[in-house]
Write a structure and sequence with these properties.
Length: 578
DNA sequence: TTGCAGTCAATATC
DNA sequence: GATATTGACTGCAA
């Protein structure tokens, strides 16, 4: 079915995602008949710029089949060529790299009209993929990732941002507040988009996210590490900026050319139905109709979801349904929201930790990644992980950080106990008096049929006293009413202090060995990688207590609830309440 | 089945 | 117009 659809209704190259391009690459490979010849021709100046990657790509291709790690199921259909004897990742790279290579000769439109000119920036930018693999062409990016030492993800992104901003390639939020910075921003900044497309193979949004909220190395999967390895390689490339500048110039040139041609050909373009120019921003009507409108949650809905999250980071399906019903949202939307929120909160916490750490360790290039790694070798008592693992001394007051869980989790919702629901306090003042008697309880959604706890009319913003989830704020007060076993848990959940030994802690502990064992010591490749990446690692692991406390609290809250709930669901699901 | 990692892409924000 | 945000999706693992 997919094949039929693809053959009858191919999407233009410029509209295809990397994954979507894969089948066309495969078809092209198949059409070429010989994988070694399937290196897609680079155009003009781009060719030189992609020389390295093309060379390595050819190396890879000549090894054999261009299978894809991401699509192992289809690798059999790829080509009869044998798998590379060197390593599977060689062939893995080939297609992955291919997808990022220019493909001007591939015509995906049915009428044979090349789509390439329709969006030169995309195709051209992708054409370059100037992975500085020179000297390492035998290594695929996956190999590099797999064998790379632990990288300082935060440091890398910091340096990338510095390099880009120093060269006026991008301008970042941190600079936005400065008018001077805005003035300094180039008129046509190269930006995250081109950097992402050419260097990382990611979209602008992903790049932005990645640069702003890098995850620690030890928490990244192999795939997740890839962009950082690419960034590191790019940083190591002495001509990185020049290449990007060239790219920028080419893109601008192509843009001007396209614009010029589009103006002169506007008539024909408009009249062309088959060759609809998808990339011109004039999305075709049929496609537009097929598009699902993006769901945008209203602030009150978000608030309600956040409150629900604070009660139950891992709501049961029934709770989700209740939430969806009462917020008039799709169940999948609520599910997605919880997934995304949990995921993003974890990253927020990491960033906070970094920032707190960097503040207390000015001038240090330390990173949580590095810290966690060091902690594996350091004494438990004072190391970051040791602290994390052990948590704060029992009963030790958290002091001013008591409300940082919420700051980390919702940025504005106060602490888990008294301050846990301070967000929107003013708007909710009335609610407290009027509806306090009927607090929202996530669990109660499951156990009762109470209505009116979450009223979030999608069309209009309700008055303060009727805002959805408002009654949630009273929930913590009821949380200590559980039985003895739950009481302790609830208390810890509410205070965010005790019982810190949470999943997060154990996760971190378990992650330590993995990070410390990343490189294969003694391996020549590993050694060369060490020199290749040349990352610096600071030696300090002190003063991470404050930042780790935040992390502890949030992790504690989220995971204790989840674990206890799971345990409870096995035994006394009905009685379990917070 | 559930949760997560990673990512895209539409949209909001600056 | 560039960047930030975020809902949705895919693939994977437990």
């Amino acid at each position: 079915g997919s094949v039929s659809d693809m053959l009858s209704r191919p999407k233009p190259w410029s509209k295809l995602t990397q994954k979507g391009r894969e089948p066309f690459i495969r078809m092209q490979l198949w059409l070429n008949g010989e994988l070694g010849q399937c290196v897609l021709p680079a155009q003009g100046q781009q060719q030189g710029q992609v020389l390295h990657s093309v060379t390595s790509l050819q190396d890879s291709l000549q090894q054999g089949c261009a299978s894809s790690e991401s699509t192992p199921k289809t690798s059999a259909s790829c080509s009869p060529a044998p798998e590379s004897p060197m390593s599977s990742s060689e062939s893995v790279k080939s297609l992955t790299e291919l997808v990022q290579q220019p493909c001007p000769t591939i015509e995906t439109s049915k009428d044979g009209k090349s789509q390439e000119p329709s969006e030169p920036p995309a195709s051209e930018s992708q054409s370059t993929t100037p992975l500085p693999l020179s000297g390492h062409s035998a290594l695929s990016i996956q190999e590099l990732v797999a064998m790379s030492p632990e990288l300082d993800t935060y440091g890398i992104t910091k340096r990338v941002k510095e390099v880009l901003t120093d060269n006026n390639l991008v301008w970042l939020t941190s600079l936005k507040s400065s008018r001077r910075a805005r003035k300094c921003a180039p008129n046509s900044a190269l930006g995250q988009r081109l950097f992402g497309e050419t260097i990382l193979g990611l979209t602008q949004g992903s790049v932005s996210d990645l640069l702003a909220r890098p995850k620690p190395w030890h928490k990244l999967s192999l795939k997740g590490r890839e962009p950082f390895v690419r960034m590191q390689l790019w940083l190591n490339d002495p001509n990185n900026v020049e290449k990007l500048m060239d790219m920028k110039r080419m893109e601008k040139k192509a843009y001007m050319k396209r614009r010029h041609s589009s103006v002169s050909d506007s008539q024909s373009c408009e009249s062309s139905s088959a060759g609809i120019d998808y990339s011109q921003g004039a999305s075709p009507q049929p496609q537009h109709q097929l598009k699902k409108p993006r769901v945008v949650l209203a602030p009150e809905e978000k608030e309600a979801l956040k409150r629900a999250y604070q009660q139950k980071p891992y709501p049961s399906p029934k709770t989700i349904e209740e939430l969806a019903t009462q917020l008039n949202l799709k169940t999948s939307t609520v599910i997605n929201w919880f997934h995304n929120y949990r995921s993003r909160i974890r990253r927020e916490l990491f960033i906070e930790e970094i920032q707190a750490g960097s503040q207390s360790q000015a001038g240090s290039s330390d990173s949580p990644s590095a810290r966690s790694s060091r902690a594996a070798h350091s004494s438990e008592g004072d190391s970051c992980d040791g602290v994390d693992a052990e948590g704060p001394p029992e009963g030790k007051p958290s002091g001013p950080e008591a409300d940082e869980y919420s700051n980390a989790t919702t940025k504005s919702q106060g602490g888990p106990a008294e301050s846990a629901f301070e967000a929107g306090e003013e708007a909710l003042q009335g609610a407290r008096s009027s509806e306090k008697a009927e607090p929202f309880q996530a669990e109660s959604l499951e156990d009762t049929d109470d209505e009116g706890r979450l009223r979030a009319p999608r069309q209009s913003s309700p008055p303060a006293s009727q805002r959805p989830g408002e009654a949630l704020e009273t929930l913590p007060n009821s949380a200590t009413e559980g039985d003895a076993s739950t009481s302790a848990a609830s208390t810890s959940v509410l205070t965010g202090e005790s019982s810190y030994k949470s999943k997060e802690s154990s996760e971190k502990i378990s992650s330590v060995p993995s990070t410390s064992s990343t490189p294969a010591t003694g391996s020549q490749k590993a050694n060369s990688l060490q020199s290749l990446f040349g990352f610096s690692e600071a030696a300090s692991s002190r003063n991470t207590r404050d930042s780790s406390l935040r992390k502890k609290k949030a992790a504690n809250l989220n995971n204790i609830i989840h674990r206890l709930e799971k345990a409870a669901s096995r035994e006394e699901a009905v009685e379990w309440e917070f």
